[in-house]
Amino acid sequence: MSMIRENLNPEVKIAGILPTMFDTRTLHSREAVEILEENFGDLVYKTRIRKTVRYAEAPVKGSSVLKYDPNGPAADAYRALAEEVLDGAKAREHA
Description:
It is built from five helices and no strands. It has helices at residues 2-7, 27-40, 53-60, 65-68, 73-93. The protein is globular, with a radius of gyration of 16 Å. It starts with a helix and ends with a helix.
């Protein structure tokens, strides 16, 4: 971030941190998110993009997961993220 601020945009800020490739079955995934939350607090989105086969297949097919598997869990998660981001923006507007 410091290099970006120095060279490109001194006003750049992190809007949020999105955990991806999340697998609820593994301790590693859960610990990684826990570490993110300990270090970055509210910057970590509550939405988790879970690791699924269809999620991995989409870019290989040259598609977004929203087009490739629109009713799958990864697409649902991205829609939930969009709502979370928009709700956060609305909350900041009214603060």
